[in-house]
Amino acid sequence: MEKVIIVNPDAKMDAKQFAYAPLGPLYIAAVLERDGFECELWDLREDYNSYDNPPKGDIYCITAVTPQIDDMKEVARNIKKKYGDKAYTILGGPHATWLPDDCVDDFDCVVQDEAESIITKICTEKPKGLQRGDRIVDLDTIPHPARHLLPDHRAASTDLWGGYNYESDVIGATLMTSRGCPFACAFCANLQQKTRFRSAENVIEEIELMIDKYDCKHFRFLDDNVIIDKKRFQKLASKLHDLDIRFRCSISSVLVSDEYMELLYYAGCREVGIGFESADDDILELNNKAGNATTDMHRKAVKLIQKWGIQAKVYIITGLPGETDESIEAVKKFIEDVKPDKW
User: Fold this and answer.
1) What's the 3-state SS for 27-44?
2) How many helices (H) and strands (E) in the chain?
3) Where does the Radical SAM core domain lie (predicted)?
């Protein structure tokens, strides 16, 4: 079976490059390993790896967000320069999904949307041009991310739990319990879609693996809205409670309630992030903010989160359509008045 090089771009735009393990590429690697391919991770975040010295392989699976695409085009050229046309290059990820025409001339194959459903077929048949993956409905059919391709100190990192500008020596790791978001915020790169969930048992299995292998009991759930399905999260919460873990998550402020906050705290959540984006209701409406959220909803959400002994973190976007000097000042005043724990 051929060897696949999983290419993880560097993330110079991040304050802490190693806070987040590259779950997307690691999911692709897990599927390919399950189906008989040999995989190696070429992690360009590491100083000892360089763009102009790609490891030898038969197939190169590359991902990129828009700030990384020019670098990954250079990587693809270097691969061809060193190994010739027999080296097969695949690009996936957000940039490929939204701007495929910008990519098709630089890679042998460009994959839009989720690739797990077709990556084995692509690596076997090596088609040229644009391919589109189907969204997998039953997420339990996808193997857990191939974290063993990372050094242990990258799979579970002290950079994560401290977060940006917050120091901590606690080992933390990322995971996803669902995919998709029913909202359609105008600024978001996610495709609006029905949320798909992993079973509670499947999530707990992955967490137990992380505890056993890495002694990791602190997590950041990367779901868009981890509590969007109340019945499902109630089942998951009791299992998380039994594991005695601590985690952080993000939810929409329109979902914040006493009932949900009590449930989150019971499950082990100690920080909730909400994307309030702007303190100007006209900007929120113009950008179709999730659930028709308003500044007043955000204000109440922060206070309710804190009421339950959970830290409230708010995410801000400046420069949205409709932004003015006055709206930027309104954000500053919101932070001063509402006093979220982090922003």
Assistant:
1) HHHHHHHHCCCEEEEEEC
2) 12, 13
3) 167-343
- Tell me the sheet residues that pair with 64: none
**Phi/psi at 224 (5° precision):** -65, -40
8-26 core/surface letters (b: 16 or more CB in 10 A; e: else):
bbbbeeeeebbbbbbbbbb
Residue 110 parent element (H or E): strand 109-112
Contacts of range 322-328, beta carbons closer than 8 Å, 24 or more positions apart = 322/280, 322/282, 322/283, 322/286, 322/287, 323/278, 323/283, 324/280, 326/280, 327/278, 327/279, 327/280, 327/283
143: part of which helix (H) or strand (E)?
Answer: none
Chain-centre distance for alpha carbon 283: 25
Measured between alpha carbons, how far is 57 from 86 in angstroms, rounded to an integer? 10
8 A C-beta contact, residue 306 and residue 269: no
- DSSP one-letter code for 134: P
The answer to whether 20 and 7 are in contact (CB under 8 A) is no
Q: What is the pLDDT of residues 158-174, one digit of tens each?
A: 888 765 555 578 899 99
- Structural domains in the chain, CATH included, are 3-132 (3.40.50.280), 156-338 (3.20.20.70)
Strand partners, 342: 313
Contact, 294 vs 281, CB < 8 A? yes
Asked if 90 and 38 touch (Cβ cutoff 8 Å), the reply is no
**What are the tens digits of pLDDT across the range 211-233?**
999 999 999 999 999 998 989 99
Tracing tokens 């890495």 back to the chain, one arrives at 214
* Helices within 178-257 (DSSP H only): 200-214, 230-243
- Pairing status of strand 178-179 against strand 196-197: antiparallel
CA dist 288 and 209 (Å) reads: 39
Q: CA–CA distance from 200 to each of 32, 139, 261, 283, 303 (Å)?
A: 24, 11, 19, 37, 29
The structure's pTM equals 0.93
Query: First-to-last CA distance in the chain?
Result: 48
